[in-house]
Amino acid sequence: MYKFKVPQLYNLKDSPFYGHGASFTKIEDVIAYKSKAISENTNVPNTQIASEFHSLNLTNDEILKITDFIKNGLYDANIKRYVPQKILSGLAFPNNDTQSRKDLGF
């Protein structure tokens, strides 16, 4: 019912698109959208929109500073060091679907 899993912010600048259905291509645009808090989909009833989704009235300078923090402050060029070689369950990581198990030799 219009609820989605939100991705982590680490290394977000490596993604080529953002938003549901890739409706944004720049982090700055996502932050500006969140600041304005105007629903993109008129088919979603207001009762299904989180109460936290409200106008933040950020200035352009604040949007740029938040964008810079997300792009650079939350960037780790060596984030792969946290990917385990294997997990205790023995399942494929990070996905455990049929194709991932095949690709990873499980």
Automatic annotation (TrEMBL):
InterPro entries tied to this protein: Cyt_c-like_dom_sf
Keyword terms, alphabetized: Oxidoreductase, Peroxidase
Gene3D superfamilies according to UniProt: Cytochrome c-like domain
Record bears the keyword Oxidoreductase: yes
GO molecular function: electron transfer activity; heme binding; peroxidase activity
Descriptive protein name: Cytochrome c peroxidase
Organism per entry: Arcicella aurantiaca
